[in-house]
Amino acid sequence: MSRSATAQRRLLPWHIERRPDPSRIGVYRIVAVLVGLAVSLLSAPFFSSVSPSEFYKSIWSGTFGSSLGMGNLLTIAIPLLLAGLAASIPYRLGLWNVGIDGQMLIGAWMATWVGVLIPTAPGPILIPLMMLAGMIGGAVWIIIPTMARVRLGVSEVITTFLLNFVALSWVTYWCKGPWFTPSAAGGIRANPIPHQSQIGVINFHGITINWAIFVAISLPVVFWVANRFTRSGYELTMIGANHDAGRYAGMNVRRLLISAMLIGGAIAGLAGALNMMGTTHQLNPDISNQAGFNGLVIGVLAGANELGVLALGFIYSLLLAGGGSVAIIGVQYDLVYAIIGVTLIFGSLGEAYARLRLVRTKHPTEPAEPPDKPDPVYAAAQP
Amino acid sequence: MTGPAAGLTLALNDIEKRFGDVLAVNRLKITFAPGEVHALLGENGAGKSTLMNIAAGFLTPDSGEVVVGGKAMRFGAPKDAIAAGIGMVHQHFRLVEQFTVGENLAIGAHDVRAMASASALNARASAIGERYGMPVDPKKIVGTLSVGERQRVEILRTLSRGAQVLILDEPTAVLTPEESDQLCANLRSMAADGATIIFISHKLNEVLAVADRVSVMRKGILFATKDRRECDLESLAKMMFDEYHAGAGDTSVRADRTVGTEVLRVSGLSALDDRGASALSDVSFAVKESELVGVVGVAGNGQQELEQIITGLRKSQSGTIEIDGHAVKNVKQALRAGMAHIPEDRLGTGLVPSQPIWRNAILRTYKSAPIARGPFIRTREARAFAGKLAASVDLSTSDLSTLVQHLSGGNAQKLLAGRELAGDRRAVVAVNPTQGLDVRAAEAVRAGLVAARDRGLAVLLISADLDEVLSLADRLLVLYEGRIAGEFSAGNFDRDLIGRLMGGGKVHES
Amino acid sequence: MADSLVATSIASAIGGSTAILIAATGELLVEKVGVYNIALEGVMLVGGLSGYATGQTTGSWVLGLVAGGIAGTLFAMIFGLVTVILRTDMIVVGVALILVAQGLTDVVGNSYVGAETRTTIPNWNIPGLSSIPVLGPALFKQSIVTYIAAWLPFVVAFFLTRSKHGLNMRSIGENPKAADTAGISVVGWRLFYVGVGGWMAGVGGAVLTLGIVNSWQNNVTSGQGWIAFAIVFFAGWQPIWILVGAYFFGALSVLNTVGQAEGWTIPTEVFTILPYVGTVAVMVIRAWSQKRRGSVSWPAALGVPFYRG
What we know:
heterotrimer, B: 510 residues, alpha/beta, Rossmann fold, 3 domains, 6-stranded mixed beta sheet, 18 helices, 22 strands, 33% helix, globular, C: 309 residues, mainly alpha, ABC transporter involved in vitamin B12 uptake, BtuC, 12 helices
């Protein structure tokens, strides 16, 4: 074999190839997320005007370091966990629910409306009714994007997202108009909901938190159990992996797609209702506070695993609570978003690392390794 | 008509390519000369496509050289190979369906001006068609063309870039016999003009008809290269596999077997394909208990629609499907009536590759006891069931948590077939069940089908592998352009006539 | 002589849509090669801040626009590298980048909030044409950027359908394997157009801070990047409809302001929701009519990462 003239184009010394056996993607992703978190948290103080020690101290005191902080952390966690769940259930089937904020708003609106309709009903009736109303509101809000996607193939990413703005305007109108109430703090707010429907708080080792936290923690667990051990969960998993196989097995793919979206919407609506009933006690356009967007991030990062939603949801709440407390000492609140964004990107990079590898482009005249016994060829290896 | 410019020798030296820990091409050395039609033969999985993809720049070899006209080349992309004169036409065409023929021929071309109007592109396309003797209508949208026409466009595109070595991957797999003949004639005349034509095939008859030299690959190595005149069907087959199923064997034994009552009845079935053209016209037949009926035909004559309608995955325009007298209109009804289905697309439809074995094993049984209890699935029962199934098909791994995508093709198909043929089913529709499998796995699947038939199932085998059907079937139907062109019983299998009918020939050829 | 209310309304609708128009046109190109840069909002933010900061430092709005473009390109290239080369999920990375952009611009831009704007994009009243009653002040008293932006969709449309390169790049978006076989560098051109889209979105952001809002605040784009993204869907990936969409949405917001000022009884929210409801409605109707005809309007390989072989 002679060293002849080489081809016209110079090749890069390395190129990227798919790994033949991408496994443990979840592990890589988690590790990458933690690395990203560390990197961004460590570099964040340098983007702010405060010293690193002040930065971390305020994060600590705003979260684990004080019972007020813990209460704050858990309060933030309630809508976040539910929003993460609202994103992850459709995501199991590959559907993106980007409209969680809007569904939360409508859920809160529906709950408020119930309170307006029957303001004198006793608490034990009113509260469940309002929660139910919240779920219905969220589900209703996601119906049009769902049907458009399932029957016409219209991207649910765009439709759910755009409806967020419509929901915002709807709620703003009602808060400024028919339900307007002047408030000392200013801002656009509706009348407070009936007193007996405001969710009470419990005191746990000095930490005050409203009992919706139990809903927020238990729902993901319930869904995780359901997905693992029930027939519907099995169908969801199988269809999520492969729609055609689901159809082949006689599963009603369409119905499951619609159900997953509606459940996601309902949970988002519940999140909005609970958030209002537990914290502000009155409807306002900020009721979601971008929890929906954040929820999407959580749901996707968790890989549609409900337990992952729990874990990541808490980490996320920690970040946001920390962000709130550093904002008090003069740091930009949105810096938190930069931290989250960087972490997300690291997560994606980790996943890419699990899927791809860098391979050295061999020079054609390099000696090959001694031949092995020919193995049976994996038919799927054929391009 | 002129072919590509006079010839280039293509030599592949010590090519090696690995996918994971599977060696697809194993230090292979082969030379292709100008002016010849060279057939590359081998079973599915022998490495033929991988090798040719390397030659054409779609894959990079782990080691070894591609030598074109005496010069060693390194291809980073297909366009490097084209620049060197090597072009490849794949089984799945790389055309933009939404564009016209003229536009497709113009993509990436160097002899098109920067601002070219549609009429200029069309004129250019017509000229190209003329030059190579394969006229095309440049204004037609590729998505509306027939498969044979699309292949023409694909070939023309490769030739118009200056390919002097033309590689075709299973070109006749999707053509009617007429189109195949036309293609072979074109290939021969291009070779006569000095081109180097390489085509990959696993159809022995075709190879004998058109090739000058034949090379046989087996499991990544070059087994032999022979001049075509030294070969015949049997010697070629012997080179390809260790065992060869020499024809149909003695079918008279099968002809005498007793069958039971009618199970599956197809009546007056008509259907459209995805593009709205007629795929099936008034198809009627029945399959009885303990009977294996084979439906043969070249791919694309309605088999896919037939498979999908019988199993409830597609709606027909008219006609009925009945199992034991019950109408079957969707998958749920089919399953309830006792229909099993070994689909052609095993990894895309019949199995969920990203899920473990045990979850795939219960795809048919997850709704009933003992696996289901109320709304729940009992994992222990499910795993026990899966374990029994895996043992019964002699699956190579006993770890039921292994993901199906990590199984070999043979093991995956054994799992699928085993699952479908187990239990008390009434009928099974198996489509190309042994395609791409190694010999042992194929034998196992065939044995499973025969055993199912002997147990009393009605087996419908839709296959493009004529020899396989001839060796297994009690009755044989020929499907051509959506119609039953002929029906034969074991003992009366006329291989030549069947082959002719598959290609659209008539019973009495003058 | 004061221009009539109608004229000034139309003028501000056109001028106010310029940023979105430029960004949306850029995104159209990106999606035609099969990538959707959902981080558009983030790119505009980055461009807006860079443009404003450069304008403050140098006093030149031209340099500001250029800086916005460069910043947008660089930021978009991060998206491109991670999604096109590493084949990660476009939605996840896009959302992440928006968050990063929000955070970073908030921090970095803090010193510019409430500053006195040093330079803005001037209007150029076309002599002669701008004196035509009603139409004159409506259409011809815009900045040069707006005049250019109005022609952009036509240029892009012509380029896409009539040029060889336009054919090549469209084939990438429809069937990357076909383009690759034909010798077109899929990864290379996808990256390139992500950069182009980034440039245009960055310039759009700078136009926003230097020409429309004329200041910097945190999250100054407040959803305009998302509207630009939605417009591409609304327009069915056809350049001319992007023009319609951008001006239509601009008109609605102007109508809203005018309505409030004039004391119309229609609640302002009706105008706010019209663009969104309109986009959803258009998408649904278009999908429905296409389903009957059996075709799709989007580039067939949109969002699908490309692997060779």
